[in-house]
Amino acid sequence: MRMSGIALIITMLAAPSLHAQSYPTKPIRMIVPSLPGGGFDVTGRTLADKMGPLLGTQMVVENRTGAGTVVGTETVAKAPADGYTLLVGGLSNIALNPVLYDKLGYAANDFRPIGLAVSYSYTLVGRKDLPANTLRELIDFGKANPGKLTYGGAAGTGQHIAASALFSQTGVDALSIFYKGAAAVYQDLLGGRVDLYFDNTQTARPYIEKGTLKAYATSSPVRHSYLPNLPTVTETGVAKLDMETWFGPFVVKGMPQPIVDRLRVEFAKTMAMSDVVTRFQNTGGRVLTMGFDETEKYVATEITRWSGIVKAAGIKIQE
User: Nearest-CA neighbor of 283 among 83, 88, 120, 69?
Assistant: First the structure.
């Protein structure tokens, strides 16, 4: 079913793409708005490696960092709509930043998705000696000890928002501590200097399996096959938190449709490659197989949904 669906997409888009047969005539930049490593970077490099040859040109990955994912995303927002600058878009820079920052050099609707490739869940982990073994016990502890629990994460990231949304929904007064990266958070978790981290499930997995950190719940809608005993947040009954961070190539709004169609054809071909699917799965990702209309509706829904969640939680990034 998956292969036939992708074949249909390619067939439907092939004819319009003929109008863009002169594109591309030079290398294409794929802007990754984060440091090397992590979901943004894995997605950008995996797609660039395969889409470049299909397009008949070099697709160059550029890590443009600063202010979380803001600098790299603004770089693409200001670039010409000519198909030579693409953005790795994700939940944080497309759906979260526009509501987290009062002053931002772009809006959520400044971009269109070429497609969504993969999504990753988050898992809440805590230091080993926390006096709570389940998520419900943790929430009860937090309510009985306001202001005592601390959680780490970089400002504005999914890790930060997942924890903030959880504690907002459950009425727990917990202190957010900002870090520049995951390595520093884990160092403090293992050292007992911070209590909790709602991190990417695959990154947290080794600590869970070794028993060096406690695991409380995952944000995904279903349990993970490699962590079958770990419940979802919704399953625990303490809150309704369905959150996965998704990634894929985006272009600026106003891009000529024939170029969008050409990029979508090569994206669909790339996502049909078994080695691409395997690479994403090996990093703990859930490969996405949405059609393009479905993708645009999904992204629009996520923007609206997370805008409401962030506003309800009163989360803002001080600039």
Answer: 120
**Please, what is the angle between helix 182-190 and helix 201-210, to 10°?**
20
- 3-state DSSP assignment of residue 61: strand
Instruction: Give the relative orientation of helices 274-282 and 38-55 as an angle to the nearest 10 degrees.
Output: 170
| Spatial contact of 222 and 233, defined as CB atoms under 8 Å apart | no
* Cα gap 39→244, rounded to integer Å: 11
Q: What is d(CA 112, CA 104) in angstroms, rounded to the nearest whole number?
A: 18
Quote the pTM value. Answer: 0.84
Contact 162, 309 (CB under 8 A): no
How far is the C-alpha of 140 from the C-alpha of 305, rounded, in Å? 27
Give the C-alpha separation, 109 to 292, whole Å.
Answer: 16
228's tokens: 């079958």
Digit-coded pLDDT (tens) for 263-303: 999 999 999 999 999 999 988 888 999 999 999 999 999 99
Q: What is the pLDDT of residues 27-58, one digit of tens each?
A: 999 999 988 877 889 999 999 999 999 999 99
User: Is the per-residue pLDDT at 196 higher than 50?
Assistant: yes
Which value, to the nearest 10 degrees, does the dihedral of the CA atoms of residues 38, 41, 46, 51 take? 160
- C-alpha–C-alpha distance, residues 17 and 10, integer Å: 10
What CA–CA distance (Å, rounded) separates 157 from 151?
13
Distance separating alpha carbons of residues 216 and 10, to the nearest angstrom? 42
Does the N-terminal peptide bond of residue 228 adopt cis geometry, omega within 30 degrees of 0? no
Tokens coding 176: 């957010």
Computed on alpha carbons and rounded to an integer, the radius of gyration of the chain in Å comes to: 20
Report whether 219 contacts 138 (CB < 8 A).
Answer: no
Structure-block tokens of residue 32: 């990754």
Which domains occur in the chain, in start order? 2-119+243-313 (3.40.190.150), 121-236 (3.40.190.10)
Q: For residues 155 and 310, is the Cβ–Cβ distance under 8 A?
A: no
